[in-house]
Amino acid sequence: MDNLKGETTIAKEVIDPDKPVKSRNGLLLRIVCAFAITYYGMASIVLFAALVFNEFITDMSKQYLPDMEISRFQLFLFILAGLLMNLGAAMGSSLVLFKKRNGISVFVLSSVLIIIYQFVLSGPDGWQKYVVELGLLLFFLLNLPFNFKKMQPKKA
Questions:
Q1: d(CA 12, CA 21)
Q2: Which end of the chain is more exposed for a tag (fewer CB within 10 A), N or C?
Q3: Domain boundaries, the chain
Protein backbone atom coordinates (compact mmCIF):
# COMPACT_ATOMS: atom_id res chain seq x y z
CA MET A 1 0.00 0.00 0.00
CA ASP A 2 1.45 3.38 -0.97
CA ASN A 3 1.10 6.61 0.96
CA LEU A 4 1.20 10.06 -0.55
CA LYS A 5 4.85 10.55 0.47
CA GLY A 6 6.08 7.56 -1.53
CA GLU A 7 6.49 5.34 1.53
CA THR A 8 5.56 1.68 1.39
CA THR A 9 3.82 -0.02 4.31
CA ILE A 10 4.53 -3.70 4.86
CA ALA A 11 2.96 -5.36 7.91
CA LYS A 12 2.84 -2.11 9.91
CA GLU A 13 6.47 -1.34 9.03
CA VAL A 14 7.17 1.87 7.17
CA ILE A 15 10.03 1.71 4.66
CA ASP A 16 11.30 5.10 3.66
CA PRO A 17 13.06 5.09 0.26
CA ASP A 18 15.34 7.98 1.33
CA LYS A 19 16.54 6.19 4.47
CA PRO A 20 19.56 3.91 3.90
CA VAL A 21 19.05 0.25 4.63
CA LYS A 22 21.19 -1.18 7.44
CA SER A 23 23.21 -4.07 6.10
CA ARG A 24 23.94 -6.87 8.54
CA ASN A 25 27.10 -8.86 8.59
CA GLY A 26 26.72 -12.41 7.42
CA LEU A 27 26.79 -15.21 9.95
CA LEU A 28 30.06 -16.62 8.62
CA LEU A 29 31.74 -13.20 8.79
CA ARG A 30 30.56 -12.72 12.38
CA ILE A 31 31.82 -16.16 13.39
CA VAL A 32 35.23 -15.66 11.75
CA CYS A 33 35.59 -12.16 13.23
CA ALA A 34 34.70 -13.48 16.69
CA PHE A 35 37.24 -16.29 16.28
CA ALA A 36 39.92 -13.85 15.06
CA ILE A 37 39.27 -11.44 17.93
CA THR A 38 39.45 -14.32 20.43
CA TYR A 39 42.57 -15.88 18.83
CA TYR A 40 44.58 -12.68 18.56
CA GLY A 41 43.18 -11.34 21.85
CA MET A 42 44.34 -14.42 23.76
CA ALA A 43 47.75 -14.17 22.09
CA SER A 44 47.89 -10.51 23.16
CA ILE A 45 47.07 -11.42 26.76
CA VAL A 46 49.83 -14.04 26.80
CA LEU A 47 52.31 -11.59 25.26
CA PHE A 48 51.32 -8.91 27.76
CA ALA A 49 51.98 -11.35 30.61
CA ALA A 50 55.33 -12.19 29.02
CA LEU A 51 56.08 -8.48 28.77
CA VAL A 52 55.39 -8.02 32.47
CA PHE A 53 57.47 -11.07 33.44
CA ASN A 54 60.28 -10.62 30.89
CA GLU A 55 62.97 -10.75 33.59
CA PHE A 56 61.85 -14.28 34.51
CA ILE A 57 61.86 -15.30 30.83
CA THR A 58 65.34 -13.85 30.35
CA ASP A 59 66.66 -15.76 33.36
CA MET A 60 65.11 -19.02 32.14
CA SER A 61 66.52 -18.56 28.65
CA LYS A 62 70.01 -17.98 30.08
CA GLN A 63 69.70 -21.07 32.21
CA TYR A 64 68.27 -23.46 29.61
CA LEU A 65 69.66 -21.91 26.42
CA PRO A 66 73.11 -20.65 27.39
CA ASP A 67 74.27 -20.55 23.75
CA MET A 68 71.68 -17.93 22.86
CA GLU A 69 72.78 -14.56 24.10
CA ILE A 70 69.51 -12.66 24.36
CA SER A 71 69.55 -9.57 26.51
CA ARG A 72 66.56 -8.44 28.50
CA PHE A 73 66.12 -5.43 26.20
CA GLN A 74 66.10 -7.62 23.07
CA LEU A 75 63.52 -9.91 24.63
CA PHE A 76 61.44 -6.89 25.61
CA LEU A 77 61.51 -5.63 22.01
CA PHE A 78 60.57 -9.05 20.58
CA ILE A 79 57.63 -9.39 22.94
CA LEU A 80 56.51 -5.79 22.43
CA ALA A 81 56.56 -6.20 18.64
CA GLY A 82 54.51 -9.39 18.90
CA LEU A 83 52.06 -7.72 21.27
CA LEU A 84 51.51 -4.74 18.97
CA MET A 85 51.02 -6.93 15.90
CA ASN A 86 48.51 -9.18 17.69
CA LEU A 87 46.62 -6.19 19.07
CA GLY A 88 46.54 -4.75 15.54
CA ALA A 89 45.05 -7.95 14.15
CA ALA A 90 42.42 -8.08 16.91
CA MET A 91 41.59 -4.42 16.34
CA GLY A 92 41.41 -4.91 12.57
CA SER A 93 38.99 -7.80 12.84
CA SER A 94 36.82 -5.85 15.29
CA LEU A 95 36.81 -2.90 12.86
CA VAL A 96 35.68 -5.28 10.12
CA LEU A 97 32.93 -6.49 12.42
CA PHE A 98 31.79 -2.88 12.93
CA LYS A 99 31.89 -2.25 9.14
CA LYS A 100 34.83 0.14 9.07
CA ARG A 101 36.65 0.13 5.73
CA ASN A 102 40.15 0.52 7.17
CA GLY A 103 39.65 -2.59 9.30
CA ILE A 104 40.52 -4.84 6.36
CA SER A 105 43.85 -3.16 5.74
CA VAL A 106 44.74 -3.11 9.45
CA PHE A 107 43.92 -6.81 9.82
CA VAL A 108 45.74 -7.89 6.64
CA LEU A 109 48.85 -5.83 7.44
CA SER A 110 49.01 -7.09 11.03
CA SER A 111 48.41 -10.74 10.16
CA VAL A 112 50.99 -10.72 7.34
CA LEU A 113 53.52 -9.16 9.72
CA ILE A 114 52.70 -11.80 12.35
CA ILE A 115 53.22 -14.63 9.87
CA ILE A 116 56.56 -13.19 8.69
CA TYR A 117 57.66 -12.50 12.29
CA GLN A 118 56.86 -16.04 13.41
CA PHE A 119 58.50 -17.60 10.38
CA VAL A 120 61.69 -15.60 10.86
CA LEU A 121 61.89 -16.48 14.56
CA SER A 122 60.88 -20.14 14.51
CA GLY A 123 60.99 -21.33 10.90
CA PRO A 124 58.49 -23.89 9.64
CA ASP A 125 58.20 -25.62 13.03
CA GLY A 126 54.71 -25.38 14.48
CA TRP A 127 52.98 -25.26 11.10
CA GLN A 128 49.54 -25.34 12.75
CA LYS A 129 49.70 -21.65 13.64
CA TYR A 130 50.43 -20.83 9.98
CA VAL A 131 47.37 -22.83 8.89
CA VAL A 132 45.10 -20.94 11.30
CA GLU A 133 46.51 -17.52 10.45
CA LEU A 134 46.61 -18.11 6.70
CA GLY A 135 43.05 -19.45 6.86
CA LEU A 136 41.84 -16.30 8.59
CA LEU A 137 43.78 -14.13 6.18
CA LEU A 138 42.45 -15.96 3.12
CA PHE A 139 38.89 -15.73 4.42
CA PHE A 140 39.17 -11.97 4.78
CA LEU A 141 40.91 -11.53 1.43
CA LEU A 142 38.51 -13.76 -0.53
CA ASN A 143 35.22 -12.96 1.17
CA LEU A 144 35.33 -9.26 1.94
CA PRO A 145 35.88 -7.73 -1.51
CA PHE A 146 32.45 -9.03 -2.52
CA ASN A 147 30.86 -7.39 0.51
CA PHE A 148 33.04 -4.27 0.43
CA LYS A 149 30.26 -1.95 -0.75
CA LYS A 150 28.02 -3.18 2.07
CA MET A 151 30.63 -2.22 4.64
CA GLN A 152 29.56 1.37 4.89
CA PRO A 153 29.07 2.89 8.34
CA LYS A 154 25.44 3.32 9.37
CA LYS A 155 24.02 6.71 8.52
CA ALA A 156 21.52 8.25 10.88
A1: 17
A2: C
A3: 27-145
